[in-house]
Write a structure and sequence with these properties.
With 365 residues, the protein is of the alpha+beta class. 42% of the residues lie in helices and 16% in strands. The chain has helices spanning 30-33, 56-65, 114-126, 145-157, 164-170, 175-186, 211-221, 230-245, 249-255, 261-267, 273-289, 297-300, 313-316, 330-344, 350-364; strands spanning 5-15, 18-26, 75-80, 84-87, 97-103, 107-112, 134-141, 194-195, 209-210, 321-322, 325-326. It comes from Actinocrinis puniceicyclus.
Length: 365
Amino acid sequence: MATYEYAFPAIRGVQAGRVFFVSMCPLKLLPKLFVWVDDDLPVELRAQRTLNKGRVPEMVRYIEDNPTSYTFSAITASVDAQVTFSPYGGAEHGAVNGVLRVPMDGRFIINDGQHRRAAIEQVLKSNPALGDETIAVVFFIDKGLDRCQQMFADLNRHAVRASKSLGVLYDHRDPLAAVTREVVSKSPVFRTFVEMEATSLPKASRRLFTLSAIHGAHEELFKGVGTLDHARMTELALAFWERIDSQFPEWREVRHRQMRSPDVRSDFIHSHGIVLTALGRIGNRLLRENPDPASWAIDIDKLGSLDWSRTNSRLWEGRAIVGGRVSKATSNVMLTTAAIRAHLGMALEPDEQRAEDAYRKERRT
């Protein structure tokens, strides 16, 4: 009886003494070949994590918004079948290009990429034209459940998500990321004193800020202010940070080499991400009330009279500092912003007022 097969043009390779294959799969075949059936099995009998359906819509939007520039890495799968590989031009020693043949009754198990597969399946319903595009698939020969589970563990053991700073640096789709990069490159407040890759600074770093912290402040600064083009956002951000800088002599002393960045970070909190975010929230109020930077001086110029030293535990402990360490938790951002607004004589936002009420109630008990 004839055996029906899938035939994949493939490249043969070897890892840890085991043969594997790399091929290209049309997107329209992906949902048919890789059927997701493990959700109802106990976790110990699965070769993958449970599909997180909350991640799929975000990936779908990514493809739909970028149909001519999306990028997906290879899917990794195990093949539970007796496969054959026929090298092009014969089976001479060392041939790596050929055709991988897999019986149609074989089973494909995704070791890495089930969310990509689910997103592609959903996108094809609204944009079937993408079905003829391809994605790389790495096939390993299945050696049982234990081997598949071990592969999943190994594939994810050393997976490291890119830092937020690096994401901002390399993201050319996000308009706000572009604004942040331009502000950092043009502003004398930040130029040469921003860590562009990591989201935290080593103790001895000569940098004073991180790119991710500035971007986070910009997210708060421009939240709900309406449609602004790139040039206007950049102009406003530059003016905002120039005004802020006038209130922090330590920032200027670092630039003039009169103070060291590590000393400023260890002695004061105003260069830490939590304060930059809080300042962004305060700037947002000013921007919504009056988009003219000249009008901000009345409020911003009171910042310099606030004691920003970390030794001011009466004010900052429990707000920006928890147990002697600066905290970036959302509640701490709210409490830090509330303290700064109170010093400036500004009314608190509702979420800040709730955090402040809870903080004061806890301190009374």
